[in-house]
Amino acid sequence: MPDVDAVGKATWVTFVPCFIFIFLGAPYVERLRGNASITAALTGITAAVVGVIANLAVHTLFRTTHTHDWGPIHLQLPEPATWRPTALIITLAALAMVFHLRWSVLRTLATCATLGLAATLIWRHARPRILDQQPRGPKRPPTSKGGDTGLCPARHPATAADDARRAASAGANACSNRPGS
User: Fold this and answer.
1) Could you tell me the residue range of the domain that residue 90 belongs to?
2) Which family does it belong to (predicted)?
């Protein structure tokens, strides 16, 4: 479960500066369109933002990516076998809502957030059932009378295994925290 306080702080420091820049700079953007050098800079910033959004889309839709380097160009390409079906369905729904149904961005965002929350809750509810159907790891060895496996229960398993080896070679029980030793 994520730490709500940390998530809130991360969200705050990520988005508040963006909104401050937008609200403080919005009145001046129309005036700056006539300036050729500033328009070129804003075009470059727009291209960078589109690249960031595309990068986020790749990491949202696919679990793993591989970096391909061609000189100064570094490109992260997704591994097609690791696509996330839930994220793809929500993305396609969002595209349909915005472009086909002409919904507002706020309405689309709220609907997609609800779909994501519902998918998460359904997955968390179904996950224990899925895991119960999978075979478990090796079973614990059967115990002798009295429940003694020959290992120290209060120690780390590696230490308990060392204790068992020492006990077998010494012919005695090397576990000092077991009653009767």
Assistant:
1) 84-132
2) Belongs to the chromate ion transporter (CHR) (TC 2.A.51) family.
The answer to whether position 53 is within a domain reads: yes
Same domain, 54 and 13: yes
**Are residues 60 and 73 both part of a single domain?**
yes
Contacts of 148 (CB under 8 A, 6+ apart): 178
141-164: pLDDT as tens digits: 555 454 444 444 444 455 555 566
| Count of CB atoms situated within 10 Å of the CB of 150 | 17
The stretch 66-92 carries a mean pLDDT of 92
Region 89-99: mean pLDDT is: 96
- Which structure tokens are listed for 137? 């790891």
The residue among 135, 163, 137, 138 whose CA lies nearest residue 149 is: 163
Tell me what the pLDDT averaged over the chain comes to.
78
| CA nearest neighbour of 62 among 80, 36, 89, 44 | 80
Residue type, 39: T
Same structural domain for residues 32 and 79? yes
Residue 68 in domain: yes
3-state SS, 87-149, equals HHHHHHHHHHHHHHCCCCHHHHHHHHHHHHHHHHHHHHHHHHHHHHHCCCCCCCCCCCHHHCC
- Whole-number percent of the chain with pLDDT over 90: 38
